Amino acid sequence: MTSDSPPALEQRRDGHGLEVLLVLGVSLGASGLYSLINLIDIETRPGGLKSAVATVVGKQNNREWLDLMYQLAGVAVGIVPALLALLLLSRSPAVAGFGIGLDRSRPRLETIQGIGFAALMGIPGLGLVALARHLGLNAQLDVTTLADTWYRYPVLVLSGIQNGVLEEIVVVGYLLTRLRQLNWTSLHAIAASAALRGSYHLYQGFGGFAGNAIMGAIFGWWFTRTRRVLPLVIAHCVLDIVSFVGYAAFHGKVSWI
Which residues contact 204 (CB under 8 A, 6 or more apart)? Predict the structure, then answer.
């Protein structure tokens, strides 16, 4: 179903605009703002993006037990905006009945779909990142600076899961639902969701923005057609876990990583 009228989402709207701004303001909207400021900072320094290094999962403390506490706290706090978004959606009767597709009604199919999306996004994405870096449009990605300790891989896996849950629930399931309730067209809502996704990757450079905005447009299109966010959560988790763990395992051993 591709109708431009939001199915089963006719419940209005009073306060939804402010709600969206506040949810984004305490989560990925704030991340987008900080990423933009960070990009301006980098680009106004000598060397610009060509000499910059962007870290995705960074070491927080030189003492292992404190670093682990910081990492686990970051993962836990990072999940909260997704839970808040789900709570707010559940209080809208029309949305609560229709859902955003997080149930386990078709686990095998949606797991396969998620893995397929991960391959579709991940393989071209590597090429885009390499090209952007070559053109000086991206910082050098140092995916993780975590020390090689016993908790390194568990933290990287948890960080990948947190990213997938947070981003797909807030930027796709929640945001597209609320924007449609605010009478945005599907095209405009998808474009806004994709731009937001790109914005909080600006700390990586223009290539990070472009690649993630394209991913956001594809994911937004899928959700608009199906109202199923679970395959997107799975895809994002797989992408991040593979990239985080793969970097940690092979950086310095494989020339192009």
Answer: 54, 138, 139, 141
